[in-house]
UniProtKB/TrEMBL annotation:
Its EC number is 6.2.1.31. Belongs to the ATP-dependent AMP-binding enzyme family. It comes from the Bacteria. Keywords: Ligase. Residues 424-497 form the AMP-binding enzyme C-terminal domain. This is 2-furoate---CoA ligase. SUPFAM superfamilies: Acetyl-CoA synthetase-like.
Length: 521
């Protein structure tokens, strides 16, 4: 299998004059991008970064971040992208854990970098004149500009070298490092191209963070099809809509939250979206209401629900997301999956059809990782007998389609019944007064936990009306929310995952003082 450096060179050789990268006023063809990548490689060499060394990048989705990613692939340097919202103590952990020698950052992360002792021990490359840097990137680029060669690059990495190390979101502490090899990243990107039916010359919105597997996959996939990656530094629905129109984007791959924001933007109604024929979503389930709205707005030829993780990129895909709402479909091209009982110790204790259990994936997958970085404890918990235990709950329906219902830790146990939040959220999302919803389990003296729905309203409604809506549905009674809390916003991670721990911990802004208690009805 080719390494990723040679994968990029394929696009340069096939389509040198095709538009490859856009970031505001910066527009690069594949030939032009190849030249900028060469300059970045010269900088990595000057900093004495060698094959296998780790480089931390704390950057938004800008042309420098995308170029640095490809330069590291060519040079055999391991890219370690970090959330630009990181805190000093988190940065201390990431730098130390990764053993990074060099850091590249921009002003938005300067406070965290300046207050991180570990960051101060690295060589710091700053963008946009940020203070505290060892070198300015513009100065380094000016120094190498006239000294780089003109011929084709010779990639130094092999398919077995590590390409990138992503850190998981760390919902219960600091994130775990997930090192991924070139061959694993390339296999994942090839599957992404196939599963989304991408054609040569696709054009996508590069908004999913390049510290997240969705962003990295979009970047690599576009190079595989000689496509265009339009950088979006920070999510802005109006800017996204304008980019769709201006660059005639053909495919979107977003978390559900961003689709929600895009459809709600006033500018969206004035946007020509006719070029977009393929939609994909991942990162969180898309509720039934939003599925219908996206389908009606775009009328896509393909609407893909993609379920995966940093560890095993593709677990399952459904290429017709609206046909069976909530279904994640079947195992991806490179994957075998199972649902095992919630108390299973190994991969062979398989749950019955319709029985909720834990989703597990075979590690023989071409795109699966091999274990966490410096975390034997996490490996012992998650890697068992050649299978990866995802920590996600779900079930297989009688047709063999996978439904993802949440996290093992999110399961609500009320009166001895296991209750998943997802199907309750999907039902409530269909009410026209519900803009967003999250369901959690709160402590209850009698039941152990009670089902509580947190609602962001689009128009006024109260708990009694929502309770009546649930009673008139086919939702079984023990799953019916016993309380409704109306909030300003549903807290989410940077990639759109609902942060249920914040809701259960009281970290939210209510829109009214009274909680609608329907438990006695």
């Amino acid at each position: 299998m080719l390494d990723l450096g040679r994968t990029f060179l394929q696009a340069v050789e096939r389509s040198p004059n095709a538009l490859a990268l856009v970031d505001g006023d910066v527009q690069l063809t594949y030939a032009g991008w190849h030249t900028r990548i060469r300059e970045f490689i010269s900088i990595l060499s000057r900093l004495e970064l060698n094959r296998g060394d780790r480089l931390i990048a704390v950057l938004q989705n800008r042309w420098e971040m995308a170029t640095l990613h490809w330069a590291c692939q060519m040079a055999g340097v391991v890219m370690v992208p970090i959330n630009w919202r990181t805190k000093p103590e988190e940065l201390d952990y990431y730098v130390t854990d990764a053993g990074a020698k060099v850091m590249v950052y921009e002003p938005i992360a300067s406070d965290a970098v300046s207050k991180s002792e570990a960051a101060q021990r690295t060589i710091r490359i700053g963008l946009d004149g940020v203070e505290g840097a060892s070198y300015g990137l513009d100065d380094l680029l000016a120094d190498v500009h006239d000294r780089v060669g003109k011929g084709p690059l010779t990639p130094l990495a092999s398919p077995e070298d590590h390409s990138v190390m992503l850190y998981t979101s760390g919902t219960t502490g600091m994130g775990k490092g997930v090192p991924r090899r070139h061959r694993q990243e390339r296999a994942a990107a090839l599957a992404h191209v196939a599963q989304n039916l991408y054609e040569r010359g696709e054009r996508t919105l590069g908004v999913m963070p390049l510290y997240h597997t969705m962003g990295v996959r979009s970047l690599i996939a576009m190079a595989m099809v000689d496509g265009l990656f339009v950088c979006v530094r920070r999510w802005n629905a109006a800017y996204a809509a304008a980019s769709i129109d201006r660059f005639r984007l053909t495919c979107l791959y977003l978390v559900p939250t961003l689709y929600h924001d895009l459809l709600a933007a006033p500018e969206f109604l004035e946007t020509d979206i006719g070029s977009v024929t393929k939609l994909g979503f991942a990162g969180a389930p898309m509720n039934d209401g939003l599925l219908k709205r996206c389908s009606a707005a775009f009328r896509p030829k393909l609407f893909v629900n993609h379920y995966g993780s940093s560890e095993v990129y593709t677990v399952a895909v459904d290429q017709n997301a609206t046909k069976k709402p909530g279904s994640a479909g079947r195992a991806g091209f490179n994957t075998r999956l199972r649902v095992v009982r919630l108390d299973a110790m190994g991969p062979d204790d398989i749950a019955r059809a319709g029985e909720e259990g834990e989703i597990v994936v075979e590690l023989a997958s071409d795109e699966a990782f091999e274990g966490y970085w410096n975390r034997p404890d996490a490996n012992a918990k998650s890697l068992r007998n050649g299978w990866y235990f995802t920590g996600d709950t779900g079930y297989l329906d009688p047709d063999g389609d996978l439904f993802v219902t949440g996290r093992v830790d999110d399961m609500i146990i009320s009166g001895g019944e296991n209750i998943s939040p997802v199907d309750i959220e999907s039902l409530l999302s269909l009410h026209p007064a519900v803009d967003e919803v999250a369901v959690v389990g709160l402590k209850d003296e009698r039941w152990g936990q009670k089902v509580v729905a947190f609602i962001k309203r689009s128009t006024h409604i109260d708990g009694d009306a929502l309770d009546a809506f649930c009673r008139d549905s086919d939702l079984v009674n023990f799953k019916r929310p016993r309380e409704y809390v109306f909030v300003e916003e549903i807290p989410k991670s940077p990639v759109g995952k609902i942060l249920r721990r914040k809701l259960s911990g009281g970290d939210y802004v209510p829109t009214e003082a009274v909680v609608s208690d329907v438990s006695k009805r």
